[in-house]
Write a structure and sequence with these properties.
Radius of gyration: 18 Å
CATH superfamily of the largest domain: Periplasmic binding protein-like II
Distance between the termini: 38 Å
Number of domains: 2
Shape: globular
Helix content: 25-40%
CATH class of the largest domain: Alpha Beta
CATH topology of the largest domain: D-Maltodextrin-Binding Protein, domain 2
Largest sheet: 5 strands, mixed
Length: 280
């Protein structure tokens, strides 16, 4: 099913998503490579694009609608308990106000600091290796950039006090745009997965030069990805359906290919497989 264009985004920014009268899952996507890729040489090859498409393939009797939405609108819709699912969330063992979650779909190497190599050396000398994020934030010396509407799982409580004063990057391709701002010196660091750097190296290698991923002390273990749907009766029903096909999705060649593409062949199928630190 093709992605809906800007008109649908504008409509959805002013309207609520009602539960469909027939069995249908409304899927949110956003412009955040390599999770979702809208356009360019890797169009629809984002790992969450492929996860969503695989689920749709394995639920052929269900209607599916793909909706291109800003990350902030997705978060708002889920909080409002609108009839929406997002294929690219951090797994939680229990429902939250925002969402109910599927069983884990795949695992990420944990989020860390992404910055310039010279600054990374300085930060690890000052705040340790792995880097202590709490101390880095408390220092208030270095400019942090975050993607608008993005939530960071276990470290979200650490970030919340800084959100009002730190640079928040909204708009298309937010995570990658932040990397370019680090490269240009406009900000000093962001927090993200190492696969963001992988995407930039594949699509804009000159802009990726000198950028490195630095592990943080607060996140030593792999992070599970999951589908999230609004915490409503509608959302719970969709999660029950989605959970029935996740074992098939995890072995789907197209989804496995996408994971290999962005994880550089170091794909985790279980947390115990994190045996080495990510390459810097």
């Amino acid at each position: 099913m093709p992605y809906l264009l800007a008109l649908m985004v504008l409509l959805l920014s002013h309207q609520s998503l009602a539960a469909p009268s027939k069995l249908q899952i409304n899927w949110a996507i956003n412009t955040a490579p390599p999770f979702h890729i809208v356009g360019g040489p890797f169009h629809q090859q984002g790992l969450c694009d492929q996860l969503m498409l695989s689920i749709q393939t394995h639920l052929p009797t269900i209607g599916h609608q793909n909706l291109l939405m800003p990350q902030t609108r997705i978060h708002q819709a889920l909080n409002n308990k609108e009839a929406l699912c997002f294929p690219c969330m951090i797994h939680r063992g229990q429902p939250t106000k925002t969402a109910v979650f599927s069983t884990p779909t795949h695992w990420y190497r944990p989020q860390g600091v992404i910055t310039r190599q010279a600054l990374a050396n300085h930060l690890t000398e000052r705040f340790g290796s792995p880097l202590t994020l709490t101390q880095l934030l408390e220092a208030k010396t270095y400019k942090l950039g975050l993607a608008a509407g993005r939530r960071y799982g276990e470290i979200e409580p650490l970030l919340e006090p800084y959100r009002k004063n730190e640079l928040i990057r909204s708009g298309d391709d937010g995570p990658v745009a932040l990397l370019k701002m680090i490269q240009s010196g406009r900000i000093d660091f962001t927090l993200d997965y190492d696969i963001i750097l992988t995407f930039l190296r594949k699509t804009a290698p000159e802009q990726a030069k000198g950028l490195v991923y630095v592990p943080i002390k607060e996140l030593p273990a792999p992070i599970a990805g999951a589908v999230g749907c609004s915490n409503s009766e509608w959302g719970k029903q969709q999660i029950e359906l989605i959970n029935t096909v996740i074992p098939k999705v995890q072995t789907d060649p197209a989804f496995r290919h996408s994971l290999n593409l962005w994880f550089g062949g170091q794909v985790l199928t279980a947390p115990s497989e994190l045996k080495t630190k990510p390459k810097q």
